[in-house]
Structure to design on (360 residues):
């Protein structure tokens, strides 16, 4: 006499085979759902990294645009170092470039930076204006900025970080004739680089004397 | 009277799932998997849409910046200018990198007169509208008014 017969009201449990099959099906389902969730998580993580890189690229574009679209001219561009000097405004002597009117844009050490001449604050306005010399249009503006840097008379700020590399392309052979410029950047996005291109237009383009 | 045998009692207690129970199980599993799939798909679509919006905004800003250097007399020639999805390039012909391949852009340039009653002046110029789009819809629009230069 079996147990069911001995206890007519009792419910029969699962046999070992049934239990094993049920466990196997549950394990397979769990594995399938788990691997799907892992794939989705990985894809979402990658999307999130790319989205963050794109938002950074957009922020960099807005910051650079404040300089490039308002610049009067691209004074100098060094193809080797990708250093670019722009003439941001013409305040002191009309149509002439003064030291404080230029900005040096560099793509180096993972950063896009802008540097400008800032004389000591304890100098009087007269002293500052006297030191703010006119630079001829064929000057080595990059060297002029380096000289001021050596004297501790420059300031700089970072426009964009986590940059792997960048290169400029100008709309004319001579930088001072270029009305448009493009900057192609490769941004580091946790191992998967994201490329961006910024196009700028110098709407108030002026060739310095 | 025939007393029930042990075999027939055991057969009665070995009851499997009914068809209805099995169907309920299948329906619940399907609905759960479907909901999961829809949620994942919607999340990915939202992520792609937000990326397109950022790329579109960058592309239209670039277009307006470049058009600002075009002589006023030539601006009208850009009305109807269009670059297909995946084929956008700068005015000087530099192709945009891979992330921008999901958007295209077009330009509308229409003459406009802006009345400024407080100053008593009317300014004639060109409204330049740049629109970025994907295969389905517009993802970003930007507009700038370029006044007609004085003679």
């Amino acid at each position: 006499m079996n147990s069911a017969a001995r206890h007519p009201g009792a419910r029969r449990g699962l046999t070992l085979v049934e239990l094993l099959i049920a466990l196997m099906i549950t394990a397979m389902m769990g594995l399938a759902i788990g691997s799907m969730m892992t794939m989705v998580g990985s894809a979402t993580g990658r999307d999130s990294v790319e989205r963050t890189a794109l938002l950074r690229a957009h922020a960099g574009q807005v910051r650079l645009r404040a300089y490039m679209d308002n610049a009067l001219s691209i004074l100098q561009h060094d193809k080797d170092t990708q250093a670019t000097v722009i003439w941001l405004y013409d305040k002191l002597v009309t149509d002439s470039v003064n030291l404080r009117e230029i900005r040096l844009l560099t793509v180096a050490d993972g950063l896009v930076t802008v540097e400008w001449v800032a004389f000591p604050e304890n100098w009087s306005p007269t002293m500052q204006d006297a030191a703010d010399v006119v630079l001829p249009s064929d000057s080595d503006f990059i060297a002029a900025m380096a000289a001021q840097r050596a004297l501790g008379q420059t300031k700089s700020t970072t426009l964009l970080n986590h940059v792997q590399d960048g290169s400029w392309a100008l709309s004319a052979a001579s930088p001072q004739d270029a009305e448009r410029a493009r900057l192609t950047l490769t941004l580091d996005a946790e191992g998967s680089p994201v490329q961006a291109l910024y196009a700028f237009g110098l709407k108030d383009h002026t060739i310095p004397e | 009277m025939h007393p029930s045998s042990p075999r027939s009692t055991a057969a009665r207690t070995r009851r499997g799932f009914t068809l209805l129970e099995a169907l309920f199980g299948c329906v619940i599993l399907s609905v759960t998997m479907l909901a999961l799939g829809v949620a994942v798909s919607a999340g990915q679509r939202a992520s792609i849409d937000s990326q397109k919006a950022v790329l579109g905004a960058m592309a239209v800003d670039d277009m307006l910046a470049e058009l600002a250097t075009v002589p006023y007399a030539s601006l009208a020639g850009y009305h109807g200018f269009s670059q297909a999805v995946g084929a956008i390039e700068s005015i000087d012909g530099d192709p945009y990198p891979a992330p921008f391949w999901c958007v295209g852009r077009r330009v509308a340039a229409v003459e406009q007169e802006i009345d400024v009653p407080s100053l008593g002046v009317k300014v004639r110029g060109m409204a330049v509208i740049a629109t970025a789009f994907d295969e389905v819809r517009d993802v970003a629009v930007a507009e700038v008014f370029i006044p007609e230069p004085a003679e």
In short: The two ends of chain B are 121 Å apart (CA to CA). Residues 18-147 of chain B form one domain. DSSP finds three helices and four strands in chain B.
